[in-house]
Amino acid sequence: MHTNPFLSSVTLPPVATCENAKPIRNFQYSISFAYVEVKGLKLHVVEIGSGQKALVFLHGFPEIWYTWRHKMIVAANAGYRTIAFDFRGYGLSQHHAKPQKANLLDLVDDVVGLLDSLGITKVCNNMLCLFVIKDFGAFPAYIVVALHLEKVDSVIMLGFPFMLPGPSVIQNLPKGSYVIKWQEAGRVEADFVCFDVKSVIRNIYTLFSGSEIPIAGDNQEIMDLYDPTTPLPPWFSEEDLATYESLYKKSGFRFALQVLYRTLGVDSGIAGISS
Predict the structure, then answer these.
(1) How are beta strands 41-48 and 53-58 bridged, if at all?
(2) Separation of alpha carbons 179 and 190, rounded Å
């Protein structure tokens, strides 16, 4: 591990539990920021808590490790070693050398390499390891669980059914959906460039926090659907927005658009895996 010189000391505020909505006042924890090298790339890793029960949190887009901070604190208070990291090309993690050739299997390498570097394996160390995943974090998680049973006990999934990347994932999506629109190289870049990073993050979280998935018309882009009078969702503060902005200013959106969106419909080459 390599200490992160930019985030050597961070104080997290007390957060509410799901049960009683009262702040955790008596929880003494430390938060560790570090870099772990996986296949020549340094991944930015955050840990809270310790012990033989590990929860590994995998983010989606437009997210980073920070997405999981409240859940990490609550789980650490319950006795878990909680770990979240920025996938390659996200946040403070390094980029793939050739992002245009990257795919979801590179994220599988990230997860497996991270578990190995941190000594997390249920076979050798008698550890309990669970994945907590959402959005595209589901794809590498499902593949890791299927191919590396010795490493993971189970998966806690938020809002995403089991599936493997491939043509069947996108074949029935409306042509105006963001998944389809963002597959075309250069199209979403031309859309995003009209906004600063903060506005891109704000627009996405506002658009995708409603009850319906936004669908653009033939001559529209997803950002055209944003209504500037719509406030941020109540669970996403201006402080949160500033944090996401600072980290996406560093990483940009290039890798995020390549992996997931432009490789989602590509056959992974993995067969014989089902739920």
Answers:
(1) unpaired
(2) 16
